[in-house]
Amino acid sequence: MEALPEFALARPRTIAELAAARAAHPDAGLLGGGTDLMVNIRRGIVAPKVLIETKGVAALRTIAAAESGFEIGASATLVEIAEHAELRRHFPGVAEAAQSIAGPTQRIMGTLGGNLCLDTRCIYYNQSQWWRAANDHCLKTTGTMCHVAPKSRGVCFATYSGDLAPALMALGAKVELLGPAGQRRLDLAALYIGESRHDGKGKGDGKNFLGLLPGEIVLRVRVEDRGGWRSGYDKMRIRRSIEYPVAGVAVALKREGDALAGLGIAVTGTNPRPVLLEGTEALLGRAPDAAGFAKLDDLVRDQIMAMKTTFTQGFYRRRVAGVLARRLVERLWNI
Ligand SMILES: Cc1cc2nc3c(=O)[nH]c(=O)nc-3n(C[C@H](O)[C@H](O)[C@H](O)COP(=O)(O)OP(=O)(O)OC[C@H]3O[C@@H](n4cnc5c(N)ncnc54)[C@H](O)[C@@H]3O)c2cc1C
Ligand code: SF4
């Protein structure tokens, strides 16, 4: 185990103090629970001289009913989200996703903000400094080529593996950000820009996967209770605990009689961003039948692009995503 380098720690207590600390230290690392960031620091992937801890900001620790839905602060912990009785009742998919993350100790420490901004992962990246140096690094750090796709034109395909983002995206959640120019709110799905197009013309990739402007911080997420929607989350992993998803799928659906009236499906653990499937409206207006599931398979095949960034083959992760999506739609339909 490598020793941690020295860093200064800022501990703001209010949102104003947090913004001031961010402005004073633009290169600082934001520290939620540190369950991902501290690992990256120890591995020499990043070495911020200053860390700004977000957990002491009381206004960001809350989970509260707001605007006919819920508002979850960026510093709410995973265990608080998983065990919040009202949240669980209204949005079981969000609680199931939080409960599926890592193990109990990481869930006590880890936060919503850290989970949403979780760094993308790759077998050539989540390694020690000496391992990466022995392989001449790669372009997500200081190297010049991608070992997963050596012919990629400067594009990184590292995989986004956070579990909460898809659960919230399937429900149409919005994220509130604070930056030097003030606050803004956007669809959570728009926070993720890791398109990783092979022609290099995508908005972002596995290296630049967050649409945060310089100095921006995630403040909170709002999810609206639209009435009558059911939600769930399922993931496949190698071990049954303390494990990132091979693929993870969130579904939110509305059933009206014998017809699907609304459907949101989001996938993680495959692409360099969590993917909110486009085209699910093609399944609406009837019960989920064989033709509907065939359409769903097409959507997954066309939009889920899993590269060999984990020990599990990309084509298998895509297959798993399709199977989980179908099973989850069936489960929620029959509740
Ligand atoms: C053994 C192990 C297993 C794991 N398994 C899973 C898993 O199954 N699923 C999963 O999703 N994760 C998993 N993780 C990763 C991690 O524990 C969780 O994603 C956790 O939620 C990260 O939250 P954190 O607060 O600890 O993040 P941190 O490590 O504090 O931060 C992560 C990143 O987010 C940034 N950040 C933090 N807060 C904010 C904010 N408010 N605004 C903007 N940026 C911010 C940080 O600067 C950093 O870049 C695992 C980790 C370990 C060690
Ligand atoms: S996908 Fe390529 S560039 Fe990105 S982390 Fe993996 S090896 Fe590095």
What key attributes describe this structure?
4-stranded antiparallel beta sheet, single chain, 21% strand, binds iron/sulfur cluster, Enolase-like, domain 1, 335 residues, 11 helices, Uridine Diphospho-n-acetylenolpyruvylglucosamine Reductase, domain 2, 5-stranded antiparallel beta sheet, alpha+beta, binds flavin-adenine dinucleotide, 2 domains
Description:
- By secondary structure, the protein is of the alpha+beta class.
- The chain folds into 2 domains: 1-54, 2-Layer Sandwich (Uridine Diphospho-n-acetylenolpyruvylglucosamine Reductase, domain 2); 62-333, Enolase-like, domain 1, CATH 3.30.390.50.
- 28% of the residues lie in helices and 21% in strands.
- It is built from 11 helices and 12 strands.
- The strands form 3 sheets. The protein has a 5-stranded antiparallel β-sheet with strand order 4-5-8-6-7, with no helix packed on it.
- Strand 4 (63-66) and strand 5 (69-73) form a beta hairpin.
- Helix 10 (290-303) runs antiparallel to helix 11.
- It is globular and about 60 Å long.
- The mean pLDDT is 96.
- The site of flavin-adenine dinucleotide has 33 residues, from strand 2, helix 2, helix 6, helix 7 and strand 8.
